[in-house]
């Protein structure tokens, strides 16, 4: 019985271990293979590989590998990451690490291309201006260098005057200036003369295909007169490209070159300097990239030039006058445009050929080919509406009126799209038919964010055959103006550390809301130690101002301010008293502006505004001195009596913007710098002279809109929420301001559905 009992115990043990048996076997197999691999590695370290006689074998620590890498030279380092441990000496005082302003500075990134144009007294106001008008805006940074003293700079140009017109001295000073001011900021430096036409886009494309790790001296290579046959210099008339590494190596030798090298031509002098001290000669081809040039003959007609050498040229020289420069620019712009159209057609053909291989087949081919498909709304609230227009009127006006005259940019847009439609029709049907426009019957357009502006035109056309027979017909055409390449607009640097000066105008009608404003200001700025100050502007009616010694209508507000100053000892809230019947926003701002420094960042608030840190930071970031002002569109909550009708209000944080609307009629809130306001206000004063009554019909927004060249940033601001309150509209203001105030009150009552429900309930109650 002992034998069967032991067998039963063994079977029970195996049954219990069966679930973990694969794990045990896997661990055993893994340990065995690891030990076997270790023994192979140790035995392999004792023998050398066949054919590697004399080379030491790799050791476990990698010492021989490092030695082999060292023998390969500095250009073949092993770029393996290393963790550098942080260590701070406890005996030294701690210093705060100062971060750079931009991340590209901290990472050591450089801008791509810097362009220097050499000009002279005779050509500064002619050829240099032509260069500035044709290609300067295509380059990221372009400066003009001249030897004139105190030269008058043409509009829109940045000129560096060295004060010596000798050509060699001008070249020496230019290279020294470029190294000193831009040597650490750019990877490539392109030097050209003002009698050179350079294709900016081609030059920029060239530097993107070249390695920045090499010393590059690229241009049209020319032989020295009576010099070495192997040495070449880059002809200055056709421009030349110098890499940053070459400029850094050349700079220490510039003084020696100036004293030792004699030459008449500045480009020869620079080429000899580079060859003698760096041993680098000019080349016209590098890393598979060719620097194509074209030398213009006398009396050349750019419009008739069809040579391949001309069309492929990056630089053309010599350009004798401004007119020729403009004609060259027009010709090369047409060449680039034709190339772009041909490339688009080739890509569209490839897309058509490949569409049949896709799962959707030819049904998935969109129109126009290569453009995103139209936006498909998922609900009726996402439907993009069409705007109807004719050649004279637009039936979707910015001010909300049903019909307005077609003018300005909209009129130019409609005219251009009709001309484009006729051009496309004639190019498709000629020479069989030739179309001319009789009338635009109907026009529709809408902006699709996924593809661009879409148009549908019903045209009344006259079609003429080759035999001269004509026929009038109506035809519908569809066109798309696609979104072009997205550009990143450079903006000046701003921080969130700027102090914000809040300005709060108060009238007698606003007294019921001041307490809530001050409570929110204290909670969101004073308690959080935000860098924000407050100035109150008490607007007295002349009748109240006469009785201020007996009854001060703002006494309660002043008492609340005193309590705040006692609670926060370091805070001072000043106030300014003004007597007026018409509280013009501009006149009030004039008073405040004179009492603050020019670099003050103002936030013009209203008593219903609930101040919070999120909005103040956006006010700081969206307002840029001498560049941009910010006019936020606050969110206005609806009247709770109509929106909820006795029900509990929405308290969820995700629904706080549900029952209200963004009040686009209100311009009461604004963020701007005092210096920008003073500049615009000076222009306004010169325009209106002594007619101060004009100021009553204006707001601060109008001052910046009409009398400043700044960007006006008008955007919805979800961080600026106002509770419902019926605003008092002053009839003494202008008709437009009073009308906007009334509209703001009416649209702030409730939504259409809320108003409809309220009317329905009222009718039900009246009927019963």
TrEMBL record:
Protein name: Hexosyltransferase
Alphabetic keyword roster: Glycoprotein, Golgi apparatus, Membrane, Signal, Signal-anchor, Transferase, Transmembrane, Transmembrane helix
Subcellular location: Golgi apparatus, Golgi stack membrane
Family recorded in the similarity comment: Belongs to the chondroitin N-acetylgalactosaminyltransferase family.
One CC-aspect GO term: Golgi cisterna membrane
Lipid bilayer topology: Single-pass type II membrane protein
Stored Pfam families: CHGN
Enzyme Commission code(s) on record: 2.4.1.-
GO molecular function: glucuronosyl-N-acetylgalactosaminyl-proteoglycan 4-beta-N-acetylgalactosaminyltransferase activity; N-acetylgalactosaminyl-proteoglycan 3-beta-glucuronosyltransferase activity
Record's signal peptide: 1-22
Enzyme class: transferase
Superkingdom of this protein's organism: Eukaryota
